[in-house]
Design a protein that fits this description.
Layout lengths: L1 E8 L4 E5 L4 E6 L19 E7 L2 E7 L5 E5 L7 E6 L3 E7 L7 H11 L6 E6 L6 H16 L3 E4 L8 H8 L3 E6 L5 H8 L25 E4 L5 E4 L13 H7 L1 H6 L18 H7 L5 H16 L2 H4 L4
Parallel strand pairs: 3-5, 8-9, 8-11, 9-10, 11-13
Antiparallel strand pairs: 1-2, 1-4, 2-3, 4-5, 6-7, 12-13
């Protein structure tokens, strides 16, 4: 048996970089589950694995314990989970104010994937070269909301290099999951700081005004200034069949911190309960109303999933 790290997932095959530096194409043996739930991709990029030799490369026999992972509901099956990555030091969420227009709800949904594992997140607003006064006002508002609750926010541009130095320093020496909605310029931004990676890029669709996927599979790539990134396909939607309403409440970090002041403590869902400290903080402008509205939307979506659909094995 040899050990190594999964550096690319193509669905049925996985590239594993062995501890000696050799890269082998590998298949999996048996079935793997996560917290009792089925997985559409049982092995994630970043996983440490044990493999045995095979005529075509290697067989993944065992996944070593993960120190963390990032997962979401599978976009193809509402009953399954999809692993984006594991064993990461931080995540980089690339967003933008324009082309495509900002969707604040997506930011909070992304943070719902990382917060349960206490994974630090950098939110980089790309395409700064396109921002006029109105766009900068919106960026400033987003910067205030998320830095106020402890996230790092950067203003960057893949086109003219704004913020490039800050981004490089933020990534240096760490394993970073890189994600974002289609069309935000994720591949272009990575190419700006690491040109030799030659990630494929594609323009915004003229027909729909939305981004188009360029990255097809998750892949770990080393950075010449130290560290590595796990590049993931552009994400269109994010749902959560692995969370309950109280999980959402506990993972909006500023809500959890203040929930000790709620009459019903950690069981408060911050909607119509009497003595809710979160609702009082929103009304006093101490908690972002945008974040609160996004929170309510996520909770309502989770509650709307039919119980029998979410527990098909019962």
């Amino acid at each position: 048996m040899q050990t190594g790290t999964v550096i690319k997932s193509t669905g049925s095959w996985y590239n594993v970089r062995l501890d000696n530096g050799e890269v082998l194409p590998c298949r999996i043996v048996g079935k793997f589950r996560l917290n009792g739930m089925n997985l559409t991709n049982p092995v994630a990029v970043g996983d440490k694995v044990e493999i045995s030799p095979d005529v075509e490369g290697g067989l993944i026999r065992k996944i070593l314990p993960r120190r963390n992972y990032v997962a979401r509901q599978s976009p193809r099956s509402k009953h399954d989970l999809h692993l984006l990555a594991s064993n990461v030091d931080q995540a980089l969420l690339i967003s933008t104010i324009v082309q495509p227009n900002l969707k604040p709800g997506f930011i909070d949904r992304f943070l719902m994937m990382t917060e349960p594992s206490d994974i630090p997140v950098i939110i980089a607003f790309n395409k700064a070269d396109l921002y006029g006064p109105e766009e900068m006002e919106l960026y400033d508002a987003m910067h205030y909301i998320y830095t106020d609750i402890g996230y790092t926010v950067l203003l960057v541009s893949a086109d003219n290099g704004v913020g490039q130095g800050q981004l490089v320093e933020a990534l240096r020496g760490k394993v970073t999951l890189v994600g974002g909605q289609s069309g935000v310029g994720k591949s272009s931004l990575v190419n700006r700081i690491q040109p030799q990676l030659h990630l494929r890029t594609k323009e915004i669709s003229d027909h729909s005004g939305k981004g188009q996927h360029t990255t097809t599979f998750a892949e770990m790539m080393e950075l010449d200034f130290g560290g590595s990134i796990i590049d993931t396909p552009g994400i269109k939607t994010l749902s959560f069949n692995n969370l309950g309403p109280t999980d959402v409440a506990h993972n909006f970090r500023e809500f959890f911190k203040r929930s000790v002041g709620c009459r019903f403590g950690g069981q408060c869902l911050h909607r119509n309960e009497p003595g809710c400290a979160i609702k009082a903080a929103v009304e006093a402008n101490e908690i972002s109303e945008v974040r609160y509205e996004n929170y309510l939307t996520i909770v309502e979506e989770i509650e709307a999933q039919n119980y029998w659909e979410r527990h098909k094995d019962i």
